[in-house]
Amino acid sequence: MRLLPWSTPDDRPCFLITDGEGGPVSDLADSIEQMQLGIGEELLRYARAMHADPKVPDREFRFLSRRLAEALGDALRVARN
Questions:
Q1: Burial of residue 64, with CB atoms counted within 10 A of its CB: 0-12 exposed, 13-18 middle, 19 or more buried
Q2: Structural domain boundaries enclosing 33
Q3: Structurally, how many domains does the chain consist of?
Q4: Which of 4, 25, 46, 80 could form a disulfide with 14 if both were Cys (CB 3.0 to 4.6 A apart)?
Q5: pLDDT value of position 1
């Protein structure tokens, strides 16, 4: 059974029952997970650049922290799978 990188409309986890072979849903999940990890890497690069600039407004740091929290949640979901 595989945990999918999306949830139901009522925010419950979605699972795929599989025999280990690939398939269209599994391929879609792989693509989404790769995209989520790529977004996390991009946010990390952006965060490092922001920390080097003392003139970045607080609101930008708050926005970034929300996006980083989302990316961390996605990455942890991928890691648990």
A1: middle
A2: 2-80
A3: 1
A4: 4
A5: 85
Confirm if 74 and 40 have CB atoms less than 8 A apart: yes
pTM, entire model: 0.78
Span 51-78, pLDDT tens digits: 888 899 999 999 999 999 999 998 888 7
pLDDT digits (tens, 9 = 90+) for 10-52: 989 899 998 877 899 999 999 999 999 999 999 999 999 998 8
Residues 17-51: b if buried by 16+ CB within 10 A, e if exposed: eeeeeeeeeeeebeeebeebeeebeebeeebeeee
> Which amino acid makes up residue 5?
P
Tokens of 26: 């599994």
Q: Which residues share a beta bridge with 2?
A: 16
Look at the chain and count its residues. 81
Which residue stretches of the chain are H helix?
A: 24-51, 58-80
